[in-house]
Amino acid sequence: FKDLDQEADVLLLCGDLTDYGKADEARQLAQHLADLRRMPVVAVLGNHEYESGQHAEVADILAGSGVIVLDG
């Protein structure tokens, strides 16, 4: 992710952002996305996040790191 903001205008993450939908995985992803502070990041959750039952926490973690999480 480090140099991606030099190659693209926006990053869209399309579902299944984690392997098992766990909050710990979302925190790791948020840390990796921190390098993209200058680039808008938009995401939608996938079935991995919903099936874990932690989808709200995953969305909150990502939103807290500046990711625009679309829902609905």
- Please provide the count of β strands: 3
The biggest sheet, with number of strands, parallel, antiparallel or mixed sense and barrel status, is: 3 strands, parallel
Q: What is the N-to-C order of secondary-structure elements (H for helix, E for strand)?
A: EHEHHE
Radius of gyration: 12 Å
Distance between the termini: 27 Å
The helix tally amounts to 3
Strand order of the biggest β-sheet: 1-2-3
* Shape call: globular
Beta fraction: 15-25%
What's the overall average pLDDT, rounded?
92
Query: Roughly what percent helix?
Result: 25-40%
Low-confidence parts lasting 5 or more residues at pLDDT below 50? Answer: none
The chain-level structural class is alpha/beta
Feature tags:
72 residues; alpha/beta; three-stranded parallel β-sheet; 3 helices; 3 strands; 36% helix
Give a brief outline of the structure.
This protein is α/β, with parallel strands linked by helices and 72 residues long. 36% of the residues lie in helices and 15% in strands.
Describe the structure.
The protein is α/β, with parallel strands linked by helices and 72 residues long. Helix 1 packs parallel to helix 3 (55-64). The mean pLDDT is 92. The protein is globular, with a radius of gyration of 12 Å. It has a three-stranded parallel sheet with strand order 1-2-3. Helix 1 (23-33) links the parallel strand 1 and strand 2. The termini are far apart. It is 36% helix and 15% strand.
